[in-house]
Amino acid sequence: MQPVVETLSGLERRLELSVLLADVETAVQAELKRAARTAKAPGFRPGKVPMAMLERTHAPGIRYDAINDKVGQAFEKAIEAAGLRIAGAPKLEPKTEGTPEGTLAFFATFEVYPAVTVPDLSGLKIKRAVTTVGEAEVQRTVDILRKQRAEYAARDGRAAQDDDRVTLDFAGTIDGVPFEGGKADAFPFVLGQGRMLPEFEAAARGMKAGESKVFPLAFPADYGGKDVAGKTAEFTINVKEVAEPVLPVIDAEFAKSLGQPEGDVEKLLADIRGNIEREVKARTLARTKTSVMDALIGAVSFDVPKALVDSECQSRVQAARAELTQRGVPNADKMPIPADAFTAEAERRVRLGLLVSELVQQAQLQAKPEQVRARIEEFAGNYEKPAEVVSYYLSDRARRAEVEGIVLEDNVVQHALAKAQVEDEQVPFDQIMGTA
């Protein structure tokens, strides 16, 4: 008989399940007999415990498990007969009225997956990120590498400017009282790197060795030091030294310092260009992927199972706690993080996941083994020993699955680009690299 499935609201459904007590008792007795073969009790040899004693000690737990098992089987059978896809676990409630004698009846309330219709991709408008890598971009990257390896030469009479290393003594007070961490001698830092608060760097900028200054500094309300956060301090600084950066010459020694064993500058520049091109390709693809996913999710509207959203919210809470722990925040595992803060993001991720899954099935966009290997080899090109990286991924199913997921998303992106209305968007190099 076809089970009667009641629609409560949206994706929520309910159906009635029944289990014969006789079937439950048959299962209980069978399990008791099995347990009796090895059961132990004081005063009895193993396997010789009286059945009446086992009834008292074991039957309640066995009966509970048997009821759950029978109800579970009845639920699975009903769901299969109704042709439903279940999202999350059902909620069971006993039915107390109108139940025949010798029968246990329950209401099972659950959610089903929505029917997902893939939108007409030809109507989507997508921006494809494009970034040019030329000689100027390579030179800019070389300059950054040179700055990272700069040496510093003290200059008498030099006014401190960005990229200079300033060494100074400082002492701070709040309401005339010194505070912890507010004093240091011969403290060096490079101007313009954001290591110090902006007011501190602004005060030091333009000063020369031997000069002093007193200035106020307002600590941000969210400053890491709780004792000074949101308060205004008065700082006195005495500049000891201003050192100018001296960048290394682009020669064989510079090339060797960057891992080019032969000291070949031309090979080094070619390697740098290759690395930049790979990074730009990855970043522009990620930006384009975001545009594709935004266009897809903006073209559909359907309910998503609350169970999946709740699960996604909990995953986001765990990820937030893990990040706080990594940053050294005390008691991060017990910190209250409201799951509903992630609801909007979770709904979007679940809806997008269901839509992409349907699109993959319809257009046969599953990741092929050769695509996965090619992507791993491309990724391995960033490492000194690419063959070892390839082996590392191919030898482990979980790691391979990560790459399969990336390839699958790439397939979705390329499929959408081939059918949608695509506009190339020129993204400046500094912007795509996050150095603007």
Automatic annotation (TrEMBL):
<dbReference type="InterPro" id="IPR005215">
    <property type="entry name" value="Trig_fac"/>
</dbReference>
<dbReference type="InterPro" id="IPR008880">
    <property type="entry name" value="Trigger_fac_C"/>
</dbReference>
<dbReference type="InterPro" id="IPR001179">
    <property type="entry name" value="PPIase_FKBP_dom"/>
</dbReference>
<dbReference type="GO" id="GO:0043335">
    <property type="term" value="P:protein unfolding"/>
</dbReference>
<keyword id="KW-0131">Cell cycle</keyword>
<dbReference type="GO" id="GO:0043022">
    <property type="term" value="F:ribosome binding"/>
</dbReference>
<dbReference type="GO" id="GO:0044183">
    <property type="term" value="F:protein folding chaperone"/>
</dbReference>
<keyword id="KW-0697">Rotamase</keyword>
<dbReference type="Pfam" id="PF05698">
    <property type="entry name" value="Trigger_C"/>
</dbReference>
<dbReference type="GO" id="GO:0051083">
    <property type="term" value="P:'de novo' cotranslational protein folding"/>
</dbReference>
<dbReference type="GO" id="GO:0015031">
    <property type="term" value="P:protein transport"/>
</dbReference>
<dbReference type="InterPro" id="IPR027304">
    <property type="entry name" value="Trigger_fact/SurA_dom_sf"/>
</dbReference>
<feature type="domain" description="PPIase FKBP-type">
    <location>
        <begin position="163"/>
        <end position="245"/>
    </location>
</feature>
<dbReference type="Pfam" id="PF00254">
    <property type="entry name" value="FKBP_C"/>
</dbReference>
<keyword id="KW-0143">Chaperone</keyword>
<dbReference type="GO" id="GO:0005737">
    <property type="term" value="C:cytoplasm"/>
</dbReference>
<keyword id="KW-0413">Isomerase</keyword>
<dbReference type="InterPro" id="IPR046357">
    <property type="entry name" value="PPIase_dom_sf"/>
</dbReference>
<comment type="function">
    <text>Involved in protein export. Acts as a chaperone by maintaining the newly synthesized protein in an open conformation. Functions as a peptidyl-prolyl cis-trans isomerase.</text>
</comment>
<dbReference type="InterPro" id="IPR037041">
    <property type="entry name" value="Trigger_fac_C_sf"/>
</dbReference>
<dbReference type="Pfam" id="PF05697">
    <property type="entry name" value="Trigger_N"/>
</dbReference>
<keyword id="KW-0963">Cytoplasm</keyword>
<dbReference type="InterPro" id="IPR008881">
    <property type="entry name" value="Trigger_fac_ribosome-bd_bac"/>
</dbReference>
<dbReference type="GO" id="GO:0003755">
    <property type="term" value="F:peptidyl-prolyl cis-trans isomerase activity"/>
</dbReference>
<dbReference type="GO" id="GO:0051301">
    <property type="term" value="P:cell division"/>
</dbReference>
<keyword id="KW-0132">Cell division</keyword>
<comment type="similarity">
    <text>Belongs to the FKBP-type PPIase family. Tig subfamily.</text>
</comment>
<dbReference type="InterPro" id="IPR036611">
    <property type="entry name" value="Trigger_fac_ribosome-bd_sf"/>
</dbReference>
<protein>
    <recommendedName>
        <fullName>Trigger factor</fullName>
        <ecNumber>5.2.1.8</ecNumber>
    </recommendedName>
</protein>
